[in-house]
Amino acid sequence: MQLYDSFNNIQPSRFTAVGVTRLAETAICQEEMRFGSLAAETLTAGSLRALAVTVLLPVLMLPLLRTVGLRVFSMASETYTPGSLSAAFVTCPNDTVAKTLARGIVENKLAACVNIVPAITSVYEWQGKIEEDSEVMLMIKTRSSKVPALAEYVRSNHPYEVAEVISLPIEQGNPPYLKWIEGVVPE
Q1: 124 touches 166 (CB < 8 A)
Q2: From residue 128, how far is each of 121, 124, 131, 160, 177 by CA, in Å?
Q3: Out of the domains of life, which is the source (predicted)?
């Protein structure tokens, strides 16, 4: 519409081929600029977001999908014999004893990892009386074949007359983690 108006406003004295061409170019440029700003406004309104999501989302998701895929493949391709590893539990009277035992257990290759769980409360019967004490718990990850040596180490280094050492077989878990335990603790 604006292009048509520009041609209607041509003055006869300026009516030459060069003048018409320049006038037409000017009108077309103005129309393109007007259309371009409309297009930019429209794109900014919603289409630009959609375009960004469509283009950027797959690009940003690719590393995540690759990592998840590698982990799933890793977990599926690892083999583990249920029960060949154990989680053992030992209670300690305080943090100092817990840390000393934990360090000794790991240094002697009796376990790959010992978690120290602070501030547990134990209620138990001892010498005919019900007792309640604050304790610290060790959660120990090791080979099942190492549990007897672990129990012997704890009995030899623990201040309690009867130290708690119990273990449960690990039936399932993250295969790379289980493999790590097997790699750290010799048979």
Answers
A1: no
A2: 19, 10, 9, 17, 43
A3: Eukaryota
- State the CB neighbour count (10 A cutoff) for residue 153: 19
Nearest to 122 by CA among 107, 112, 137: 137
Tokens of 28: 């077309």
Distance, CA of 145 to CA of 159 (rounded, Å) = 25
Tens digit of pLDDT for each residue in 126-139?
999 999 999 999 99
pLDDT of residue 39: 52
- Alpha-carbon distance 65 to 24, whole Å? 54
Burial 100-123 (b: 16+ CB within 10 A, else e): ebbeebbeeebbbbbeeeeeeeee
Q: Which two tokens stand for residue 168?
A: 């449960």
